[in-house]
Protein: 2-isopropylmalate synthase
Organism: Limimaricola soesokkakensis
Amino acid sequence: MTTTPDTRPENRVLIFDTTLRDGEQSPGATMTHAEKLEIAELLDEMGVDIIEAGFPIASEGDFKAVSEIAKQSKNATICGLARANYKDIDRCWEAVRHAKSPRIHTFIGTSPLHRAIPNLTKDEMAQRIHDTVTHARNLCDNVQWSPMDATRTEWDYLARVVEIAIKAGATTINIPDTVGYTAPMESAQLIRRLIAEVPGADEIIFATHCHNDLGMATANALAAVEGGARQIECTINGLGERAGNTALEEVVMALKVRHDILPWDTGIDTRKIMNISRRVATVSGFPVQFNKAIVGKNAFAHESGIHQDGMLKNAETFEIMRPEDVGLNATNIVLGKHSGRAALRSKLKELGFELADNQLNDVFVRFKELADRKKEVYDDDLIALVRQNEAVSDRLRLKSLKVICGTEGPQHAAMTLTIDDEEKSVDATGDGPVDATFNAIKALFPHEARLQLYQVAAVTEGTDAQATVSVRLEEDGRIATGQSADTDTVVASAKAYINAVNRLLVRREKTAPNADVKGVGYLDAGE
Ligand code: KIV
Ligand code: ZN
């Protein structure tokens, strides 16, 4: 890779995290209000410069989340998204204005395909950009503007509208590769050319926002930095629409590990990466793939004899960063059945969980049960235990489950659920123990949701390992993913399904069927 001398005044790249906005737009990645606040706090603590907290006009829930994140944030700039209309922008300002440092982010699709949808001529769209950015800037000193699908917008038109947005007062211009279409050399070149040719470009910050449809999002973002971008938009675990976005952990670690050829600094405390990655995986219901860079379960695992031998002699033979650099413990075996409450509290703290006394008591009881069943309790087991304790919603809870299975079908599931504080029981049959269990849930809480995904993975090794189960449900275009872990795979399956139903109920309150705000119309918000 060739490097270009950095012509900008400083070597600092701003990290703009959009897990709570673009990430939450992934089908099924709905987070509850409390979860969004918690993720925002973790992002703030790890040193993210700008947190895009949501899309305030999208729903009452999004508005509340952005407002409260704005109030709670200690260091980060808090940003909200708005389409190119006054109503969106006003609503966004109402939410972010509570922040110490607020930002309005307004956007419009500028490529031919996107211009055709609101049916605006180039001139009409240019006028709309001028008016909406001016309006935003009259409300807030810090305005970001994005030409959506910039990488498929004609060069002349892109340069023209970027200039208009700068003149109207935008302080950051974000260049989105909305459909993950660009490639590293082109990504660098586009930013370089905008900086060189658009009047006023040297007075604002250029940002890069890359989707991962061709698996090049991180490379494209880093190339854009080479071209002069000084803000990277990204998400934890690369969460986001379709194939996702640039992953925060990947760009940050690439800038750290290859500082020799990527000489830009971020303000991120990389030791907090593992914890937030695990947390986002849980609350979004999107487990991290085992071989994912930096945060995957296998990212620091060494299987072959040659690798293990090399690692024992010198870890640098097969590791380009230390596990501790991303907050992973060197040793993973932890507590046993003789461990006490204090040891558990201290271990959980190390893993990023600070529990109130009553929560710790619950987890302690469950830890003892697990330690009786399992020889060794690993960090991942403890994390699964804590997360299992966090109910998304109280509407449905599993009280008891007894399953009869074996070679003689049909299998039976006797289940008791607490639904809205009332206990209900049923005996259901099915084609296998999991099918019988899911049939029992459907009999007790009838619903039309369709099972889209059922996935089982072992948390640790061995036949006594806990199973983590993910369940994805779809109802009227709304998608919700639930997760749970237990040494009993069928119990984990029941809890994961119930978790998904609870999330679906939250989503029902949040959106009308099929009401994905991104597709509602780029401009109109009833004005
Ligand atoms: O991908 C995209 O274009 C976006 C914009 C709203 C910035 O997410
Ligand atoms: Zn995006």
Observations:
- The CA atoms of residues 7 and 420 lie 61 Å apart.
- The chain is about 40% helix and 20% strand.
- The two ends are 49 Å apart (CA to CA).
- Residues 489-510 form the longest helix (22 residues).
